[in-house]
Amino acid sequence: MQPSQPAATSVQVTVPGFKFKMVEKNVCFYEVVVNSRDGKKWELEKRFKDFDTLHQALKRVFSNIPDLPSKSLWTLSEAAQIERRREQLEKYMQLLVGRPDILNSEVMRMFLQIENFAPDAVVNPPKLLQEISSFVLGVRDFKYEVEKGLLFVGISDMNPASRIDSYLTNMKLPWEKDLNITIVTVGALECYVQTDASEYKFDKLWTKTFPSQVICLDWESKSCRIAVGMDDGKVEIMTVASELNYMKFNEVLNAKIHAARVMGVYIDNIKGFLYLSLIHI
User: Fold this and answer.
1) Pairing, β 262-268 against β 249-256
2) Largest alpha-carbon pair distance within the chain?
3) What is the phi/psi pair of residue 145, to 5°?
4) 71 against 89, higher pLDDT
5) DSSP the chain
6) Cα 94 from chain centroid (whole Å)
7) Closest residue by Cα to residue 262 from 216, 196, 222
8) Which of 63, 255, 265, 266 falls between 20 and 30 A from 72, CA-CA?
9) CA 162, 178, 237, 231 torsion-angle sign
10) Least-confidence region, from 21-25, 29-33, 41-45, 127-131
11) Cα separation of 109 and 56, whole Å?
């Protein structure tokens, strides 16, 4: 009796058998049979190490995934042992494809070769268009305006020990003048412009640094204003010059609004209001 799979699953997977092939040495391949909802069927051959590679890739993206049958210190040679592993692998695969988030993932689609045999079997799979990985700090918030090709990214130091050290360095003593200069960056706002709409390529235009963590952002397109809420209760609003291709910004507000973290900001350009979400202490 085959383990049941949810009716809503767009593909059904079984591991009905195994065979040995000579690949430098005698190697066991498990037969993987995939049936799509539209009646397409295809067969794959996978070694145990292929299942293990899939499992490790899924663990980096998803939580609470089913357990993969354990590895053996020695190569399985007895038919009864291999049959037991086959049953475990079949149950493992059916649990995986029963989860839409895993089934729709690029890793699983590649493993089952869905794109080659039944590209319509997965509904609206996400596709990576571009990746920006050059941030020196952790990303807290971002705003992307498609029409203007603008991307604003709020980044912050995510290391508590490092933040404390930076706060102490940036601290002004009573006899020192407040020059509003950030000595050590704890947070920053970065502005990017899209240079190639077809490939989603971005160039950085400028960076504004802060002595506190950036927590949240809001961009108001008509007035070209960006609001930044910070960990120390400050809010900063800047205008970004569209006539200069957004390469220059001007500060219009820099005020400590609250005693604790600003969790959210929203610019209402019609009413001229600035809405804040605050933590009360």
Assistant:
1) unpaired
2) 82
3) -105, 115
4) 89
5) -PPP--TT-SEEEEEEEEEEEEESEEEEEEEEEEEETTS-EEEEEE-HHHHHHHHHHHHTT-SSPPPPPPP-SS---SHHHHHHHHHHHHHHHHHHHTSHHHHTSHHHHHHHTHHHH-TTSSSS-----------SSEEEEEEEETTTTEEEEEEE---HHHHHHHHHHHPPPTTS------SS-SEEEEEEEEEETTTTEEEEEEEEEESS-EEEEEEETTTTEEEEEETTSEEEEEEE-GGGTT--EEEEEEEE--SS-EEEEEEETTTTEEEEEE---
6) 26
7) 216
8) 63
9) positive
10) 21-25
11) 15
Tokens encoding 126: 């996400």
Q: Both tokens of residue 234?
A: 């400050």
Confidence of residue 222 (pLDDT cuts 50, 70, 90): very high
**In DSSP terms, which residues pair with 255 in a beta bridge?**
235
pLDDT at 42: 96
d(CA 76, CA 27): 10
The token pair that represents 247 in the structure block? 């390469």
pLDDT tens-digit map of 116-125? 998 877 666 5
Burial 90-123 (b: 16+ CB within 10 A, else e): bebbbbbbbbeebbbbebbbebbebeebbeebbe
Distance CA 16, CA 41 (A): 14
Amino acid at 123: V
Tokens of 180: 């509003």
248-275 pLDDT, tens digit each: 999 999 999 999 999 999 999 999 899 9
213 token code pair: 């963590």
**Encoding tokens for residue 88?**
């475990």
